[in-house]
Amino acid sequence: xxxxxxxxxKTVIFIDGQSLFITAKTLGFSIDFKRLLDELKTHGxxxxxxxxxxxxxxxxxxxxxxxxxxxxxxxxxxxxxxVRSYVDPDGRKxxxxxxxxxxxxxxxxxxxxxxxxxxxxxxxxxxxxxxxVQRQGKKCTVISSVQSSQQTCSASxxxxxxxxxxxxxxxxxxxxxxxxxxxSTASIVxxxx
Length: 193
Hints:
Low-confidence stretches: 179-193
Radius of gyration: 16 Å
Strand order of the largest sheet: 3-2-1-6-7-8
Number of strands: 8
Distance between the termini: 41 Å
Helix content: 25-40%
């Protein structure tokens, strides 16, 4: 099993929340974010873990709010972008927008101060971002999947990374233990108000 190589220097982890959720779902498991945090912290001098997500600004009952609250109280830096939803021609609810610019800006701002960047995403749009970070002499690792029924990591992103970690190989370390039909956002322990 391939593991994240221990970095000799400072590491920052960037999590594209939507990409992670979709990838884990296609692999047939839900993420336990406490176990994910514990696993990521064992692989070097992790100075920050940033979680990015979109939230429908009209959905007051979204399960993402309890998740992001829990994450922010438990070691993650959370970036939320509020967007509007719409219904596509097939009747499916979709959100208009993405979080890529926020990830790119944050990564470029922090890259001069770290040695290693870990990106948990499969979005090929990040390929040129990794190349820009590498030109600064930084190591770049991507965590995603090519083993799922729907390949969730683009070939260009895998090629751009110094190291690629298959999410399916981390499953035993980061899977929610009582994996039932609920998604990972619904299982979060709610903090007392």
